[in-house]
Amino acid sequence: MTHVSYSEIKNWSVCPFYHKLTYIDKLKLFKGNEHTAFGNAMHDTCENMVLNEKLKSSQYFVEKYKEVLKKLSDDKYDFDKKLVLEMKEQGLNLLPQIKPALNKYFNNYKTFSTEERLFEDTSYKKYKFKGYVDLVLKTEDGKYHVIDWKTCSWGWNQWKKNDKMVTYQLTYYKHFFAKKHNVDPKDIETYFILLKRTAKKDNVEILRVPCGKKKTENALNFLKKALYNISSKNYIKNRLSCNFCEFKKTKHCP
Fold it and tell me: pTM of the prediction?
C-alpha cells in the first residue's frame, strides 16, 4: 500500500481491525442504501451544476438518482420505496437553493476546481495522501475556499460539528491542497456545506470550519500515528465499536 485517504484514517480510528478487514483484506459487506444513493446523486449534481450554468439540475439529479439506485438493485438490495420517493422530492426541493446560497455567502467567486485529486507526500515513508476535494472556489481577495458537500436529514448537532475526526477531513484537504499548489495556508478557508433533506428552512447550511496551525499539527501527528500502526500491522480490535460494525458476529470477525 502506497497511499492513504481520509476515509481510511477515519476507519482506522474507529477500529484498526475493521481497517484491516476493509483495506487490507478488501472485504465489503455494505454496498449502499437509499441514503448513499441520494448522497452520490446529489454530489454528482452539485459538481456539474457549478460547472455548467445551463445544466437542467432537476432532470440531471433524477436521472443520476435512478442510475445509482439501479446499481444497488442489481446487487439485490431491497429498497424502501416510500423513502426513495421522499428523497427524490427532497432533492428536487434542495437543488434550487444551492446556487443562491453560494452566491450570497461567497459573493463574487470563480470555480477553481471540482473533484480535484490530491496525491501528495505525507512525509511518512513513501505514503501519499489521496483525496478528492468536492469543490474549490476562489474569491476576488485571492482566498481559496475548500468545500465538501454533506447530505444529511435535518442537519448536524453541535457535537458532530466539532468532532475532531469529522473536521480532520477538511484539515487534511487544506494542508495537502496548499502543498500541491504552493499556496499559503492562511489564504485557504474550509467548509462543509450541509444539504439538509428534512429541515423546514435553511436547507443549505454553509459551515465554516477553522483549520489553524495547531489543529493541522495535531491532524498530521494523528496521520503519522495511524500510518505507523498500519505499516507495522498492528490490527488491534476496538471492542467499543463492535455494536455498529458490519462484520459483527460474522466469520470475518468472530
Answer: 0.95
